[in-house]
Amino acid sequence: MYGIDGVDLGIDGIVMFCATLYDPSHDFTCLDGSEKIPFSYINDDYCDCKDGSDEPGTSACPNGMFFCRNIGYRSHYIPSSRVNDGICDCCDGSDEWATGTNCTNNCYELGASAREEAKEKHDIQQRGYQLKLQYSEQGKQSRKEKQEKFEILQRERSEIEAVKLEREALKEAAEIPEKEALEKHRAMEEEIRSQRQASEKQKRDEEALAAFEQLDSNQDGVLTSDEIMAKPIFDQNGDGLVSEEEAKFFLSGQTEMTREEFLNTGFVLMKPYLTHEEEVASPPPSSTVTPPAEGGELPEIPEGETDEEEEDFDHGEADHDDRTEDSEVLPVEETLPYDPETQKIVDEAKAARDAYNEADRRLREIERDLKNIEDSMKNDYGPEEEFSPLHGHCFEFTDREYTYKFCPFDYASQRPKHGGSETRLGQWGHWAGPENNKYSIMMLEKGVQCWNGPQRSCKVHFTCGVDNVIMSASEPNRCEYEMNFVTPTACAPPTGSPDDLLAHDEL
Amino acid sequence: MRLNRNCLFFILSFCYVKGVDKGNFKSCEQSSFCKRHRATRETPSAYIADLKSLSLHKERAFIDVINVEANIPLTLEIIALHNYAFRIKIQEKNGLRKRYQVENALVREPETAPIILLEKKDDHIVLGLDAVNRMVIQGNPFRLDLFNKDGHVITMNGRGMFKFEHYRTRKTLLGKAISKVAEVVGSSGSLTHRLASWIGNLLSSPEEIPMEHNPETDSQIEPLDAEEVQQTSEEPPAEVPVNNDAEETEPGMWEEDYKSHHDSKPYGPSSFGVDLSFPGSNHVYGIPEHADSLALRDTLNGDPYRLYNLDVFEYELWSPMALYGAIPFVMAKGKEGAVGVYWQNAAETWVDVRDVPGGGVVSSLMKLVSGGASEPGPHKEVHFISESGLMDVFFLLGPGPKDVLQQYTGLTGVTPLPQMFAIAYHQCRWNYNDQEDVQFVHENFDKEDMPLDVIWLDIEHTDNKKYFTWDPIKFSDSLGMMKNLSDKGRKLVTIVDPHIKRDSNYFIHKDCEANGFYIKDTNGKDFEGWCWPGSSSYPDFFNPAVREYWKEQYAFDKYHGTTKDVYIWNDMNEPSVFNGPEVTMHKDKLHHGGWEHRDVHNIYGMLVVDSTFQGLMARGENKLRPFILSRSFFAGSQRYGAIWTGDNGAEWGHLQVSIPMVLSLSIAGMAFTGGDVGGFFKNPETDLLIRWYQAGAYQPFFRAHAHEQTRRREPYLYDETTKDIIRQAIRQRYALLPYWYTLFYENEKTGIPPMRPLWLEYPKDSDTFALDDVYLLGDSLLVRPVTESKATSVKVYFPSDESAMTIWYDVETYETFTGRGYKSIEVDMYKIPVFQRGGSIIPKKLRPRRSSVLMQHDPYTLVVALDEEGKASGTLYIDDGESFDYREGKYVYGHLDYQRGKLSFRFLDAGRYSDASWVERIIVAGLRLKPHKIFAQIQGTKDHVELDFKYEAKMHILTIRKPKLPMNYEWHLQFY
């Protein structure tokens, strides 16, 4: 049952062109040269050669290979360990020659469907490749445009830099007289304000004195608790009596209070009760200065053409610095209008400043545009710029739990299907395919840190297809994601006929 | 326990602690009965045996043992057993409550033997199995001494540590108050006593003490006075014990708190303990499971070894802490012989181990006793302490270590021969995500030509942790998945844990709830705990109806989507209760028959597996051998299959400890064990993973497993060199499957485990007694796996028989090592130091296949390694690899023997099996002279067939080419 010596078919398990090495009329030398054995030892189900070359048709050698002829389908090798193990591995069933395993030869069927498949694949490859060529054109065009734009912007930059310098000088020149005029103006304001304050204080002191006289029943110049207790207006708790405690409260914890103390502290405490009774005619003067209103309006910046990625920029910070006005401004009602001469100086300075700011803003815009173009030109869009058109697009894939998003040259993310926030799986890092096929894998790195784990990352496998589609997304290792992305960009130039592809594929 | 992102609530506190949090598990100090026993004063014992009370029957004897302080009579029952063993039972003579007698651990009621009264004196009695194997019972103080052919081998209560807490009624609430105070004060004994008397004086009447009411205990414990106690007990003790009150004041006797958990202890104290010393034995082994050395260490300066089945997160190494399983069995190794003690108790048990210096311990009485021992030298002593249950102890008198193992497995059973696949390579992960993932994994093994027999599915394969179900989307076509596996001869193992999700739409829960199948709370309601599925209840496997129910669930028409190629993994069966005390069940929860969980805890896990085993038998009409992996175990669990060493970690220390852990299990009857290859927690470095595969390939149960949060680590994912090394390691396992299989068959017959400490085969070589980095597979292979990082060489101890001439052959190079002692062996990353003993014959199958099933008919290579006399022998067992047909004689068990130029194969018994396998190669190592010719003769034929061979003169190796010897015939070769 073991060994197939004498089987007419020749040497089983070897590819035809090797058959010449097995010459029945001579002793056999192991292909590695290690041993010379009688020819009868070939395929006798005993391993004589270290390289397994004496047993191409049996399972005797642990390192041997068995050749499935598979006429009608692909011929290929299988490990010797699969010969006569009860499982049909060759489609022609030739590997199970001794076990009686009932293998049906389905090579022709497999061949037919494989050819069909190969044809389809070939077709896809062809169409995909055509698209890739277009992508490539677009990509190159885009690079060219970017280059041109870059140069234009560079020129603009040097122009605007000059303008900015010039305007800065003008601005500074205009601000000197403005500073002087404003200082003068503020001094005037200050004077008016102190005059007003003095008259207010006088008024209040008079009022307080009047109150003191009235409260100091015995007119001895000292206010005592008895005197307070005699005044029902000081009944704070409304029990109809002014207790000693209540009196003490108004006398700042003392039993008596001099006139001077009353002016400083007592009056403030008692005043609300006094007015309560007496309906003091004049409203209390505002004794505190209202803090200046913050800021006012920001200088208006005309919003020009803003590019993508707006959110990354914060205009606010820079604009605040433009505010040159002294923040110590009088309350609105007390603002002293500028005299015409001052007004003119201020207006001129503002105009110079605005002009300068405009130039500065424009310069920064240009610099930002330049940087974007530069960054984008640094991206490796492939040898033929074929990946370039993918940049700026995003693709989604939804499985049972999540919607995955892949934006080539940008980022990948995941968000729960049934609500919840998006999690960044990674940002564009680099191409990570094997040396001979670098552009087959895009690596997105430095995603959100996993709880108690590493930063997320995502590996995207590119394979040839007619449309750009994510075929699958998974997390084979914790926090390490993988996607399969079908795209024309991964289509190699089709070679020859589908049959070539079929043959080429497995061998 | 496995970590889950969802388990935040209860386990956050210990989920992300680095390593075990000792604070989650009790020390002896925190376990009141352990503390009380450890504090027992030494000699003289408070107990005397009333020798006059001896009542002798044919196979057993009864003697009263009395606590002289409390005057509580106990009954000592001595039973003589067949095969050199005594069994004793001690319990109250007139107990208030029945004590739990462990069931299910013994394979059957042990066969008894006639008991012989050898001597009866006033101060001692001698009872014998024969004139040599005997037990001396000393009256005052009470003590037992056992003798075998080596002389005096075991003493019980030699140090007077015997203490038996009889069941008692809680007489006064005063006691409760005092114990409460004492607990709060946490005082030493004397302070407690002073406090007790102070409170006693202060309060004239106990009834006046304002008590906080505990509904659970109050219902059980009525305030009774002494007279009522006497009336309620069936046969009251003669006197009211005077000292009882003092005892009552010990803290933790009537209720005990641990962390936020309260143990209501309605029955009060019931523990017992005793010292057992082994004169002449300097090594004791056993009482698994601990992550510690094989030889037990002195515990004087730390905690005792603890036996209490617990789900321990990231367990600590080289520690006596309790782990997932408990086998209360010790073996003591003397200069040549060995004896064993099986302490049959399922309650929480602590075991102190002491190195006793020579002299003084065994009283001079022994010299008087006929054949008495002389003063013992330094030796080992153990002190067993159990919380409740019957005191039920087996003394196994050996006299050799293999005899002890046979005696022990004679009592508790052996591991039945597993199916071939079960001893092959298993690939597990928490979790293989879906059926496509499963397909992907086994396809990749094929792509890399790495053998694989079994893929495992952890908890995530179920529909929301409802066991016996499948995730309807991820495993929508489990039968299709199974077909793909079965087509390659492969199997699947699914997990079935004993915690049941409390989901009113879950059929198991509905059934269990409706039938009252769950473990009950103290108030009689179904206990609800927290585990993987969230709120869960636990079937009470002590209820026969529950076992029957569980068994039925495995039927193919109940457990949908399974086939005969699906086998089972019972995990979390300690049981694990995330929110319970020490992550397990509260001790006062109630089981069938009114037993408290306290009484039965350590046996719960085994009963789960028992029911599963019955289920797998029943579903296939008892044709195919079941395979079950369990994490928890008890004495007797070996009868149901494999256990693994739980949730280890990817660290070198965990790899190292796996060897003593498996050896310790092996000599306690668990033949089929192993650790998670690669380490469950954390990510192994590549070299650690390689070394672990190499070690795992030479342990009985060979499974790679990984935690959910680790990186994928299937061996096909690595670089070419790593893949090749791991492929070679797995292939070595497969090549040796015929040998492993033979060892497992022999284990079923003899109880001797496949993986053995050296001293099991070399019992007189005292240098081997503490070794646990090297071991034997069977008696023919010496294995010393590399378990050290960056090792370039390892020191290997080579044992030898008395001639000191034993030859060991490197299995790869046939380099020989002769004599006893250490040799340094150089190792590269490929090297697994394995040596074949001169004098042995090992059967191998060298053709690598995708799975073991596909190797069934492959031819054998016999490796004959000659000893110094030019002889060798071995055995080979063959059957169909899966069914119970071997029990009907469908097998071949043959003896291979080589001497004086003749190699023969003879059947050892009447078993016959027609197998297509044959011998393709015979290698004879150590053959000094080249034969001229070799002829083969197959029995029943007259032909003498001349065989081809090759001889390598330099290495003395003969290779016989293709002798075509069939294994279903006897045959012999003659060398000329």
Descriptive report:
The complex is a heterodimer of chains A (507) and B (976). Chain A has helices at 107-215, 225-229, 244-250, 259-278, 315-321, 340-378, 498-506, and strands at residues 28-29, 36-37, 65-68, 76-79, 222-224, 256-258, 395-398, 402-407, 411-416, 423-431, 441-446, 457-464, 469-477, 480-487. By secondary structure, chain A is α+β, with helices and mostly antiparallel strands. In chain A, the strands form four sheets. Chain A has an eight-stranded mixed beta sheet. In chain A, strands 1-2 form a two-stranded antiparallel ribbon. In chain A, strands 3-4 form a two-stranded antiparallel ribbon. In chain A, helix 1 (107-215) crosses helix 4, helix 1 (107-215) packs antiparallel against helix 6 (340-378) and helix 1 crosses helix 7 (498-506). Chain A is elongated, with a radius of gyration of 47 Å. In chain B, helix 15 links the parallel strand 29 and strand 30. Chain B is an alpha+beta fold. In chain B, strands 5, 6, 7, 8, 9, 10, 13, 15, 18 and 19 form a ten-stranded antiparallel beta sheet that branches. In chain B, strands 30-29-28-27-23-22-21-32-31 form a nine-stranded parallel beta sheet. Chain B is globular, with a radius of gyration of 29 Å. The interface between A and B is medium-sized, with 25 and 30 residues.
